[in-house]
Sequence to fold (105 residues):
Amino acid sequence: MLGKIANLCWEGLTLKHVSHKKIVISYLLFVFTAFLFELFLFLLYGVSCFIFYDYGQSPNFVFYLCGAILILIKILTVSMLKTTISRYKDVFLKERFQTAKIRGS
Fold:
């Protein structure tokens, strides 16, 4: 039961049953923006680690827990981007080929 729910969730996150190009492009832009925001959070986490080390302080357990959660979210975002781009790559290439073919005629 839990595996089926996880599969349905993954199909929803990677737009398995969506074929409209404008929706896919908007979704990819949103996920890419989330990716950039997570890079910013990694930068802040790294600066925080440096500040803790520089001042000789020791962060608490919650700081390390947030770092682990940030890594898990980054893995999920990257895998969503890769899966969605690979699934819809032929849609974008097909339209580009058709556009080039029409212009070439």
Notes: The chain has three helices and no strands. The radius of gyration is 20 Å. The chain has one domain: 2-104. The chain has a mean pLDDT of 85.
